[in-house]
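[agent] plan:
  1. take the single chain provided in the ticket
  2. run structure prediction with default settings
  3. attach structure tokens to the ticket
  4. add a short note for the reviewer (M.T.)
[agent] executing step 1
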Amino acid sequence: MSNYEKLVEAWRLKFLEMDKERLLRILPELSLEGEYFALSHYRRRFGVHSATGHIVPLEDNAPVSSYTKLNIYTLFGYATPEARLTGDFVAFADLKDASPFKRAFDQSILHPLAQTFSGKEEDFARACERLGGRKLPGSGMKYEVDAFLCMPVRFLFWDGDEEFPAQANILFDRSATDFTHVESVVTVASEGMFYLAEAAGLELKGSPLFRP
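[agent] step 2 finished; step 3 output follows
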């Protein structure tokens, strides 16, 4: 069993001990559908089995990555009753306690995202739209995508030219760290990067991350 699998298993066991009624109260997007607590992550529907805690896809048969499982479990584990969307979108480093992780975030997520879609602006737009993204005004390609309904993420992309390479950024509602741990925000962003590349049919370039 890999370290990621061990972590997923530890969180599965934590889920079994959680107050499920509390989760339904503080996460309105969460619903009880038969034996599963259901919610969407980047538009893909998942169910967490009420008796076993195992996470399964509800609308397809594709594998579920450990990152996605951890994103769901940590949302359950860290969301606070007071958490509310603010409408104030900031860069990752401006989130509470996030600045020490900025360099790694840029190198493992922002730079690879820009490299992957360099010269492929239309592919970026289509990928965002396939994930339910809403186009935002302004220069470049800017889309707001729901990682979870309580955690909208803004993906920004500017294609390169002869003088400057392509650039990307990811913005989060300032409340993101009220819904999950700051290190889990990194995982939410990385899954967004993987889902976008997958939706565009592109191989991710330059990322040191392995998607377990």
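[agent] step 4 note for reviewer: The chain has two domains: 3-78, 89-200.
[agent] ticket updated
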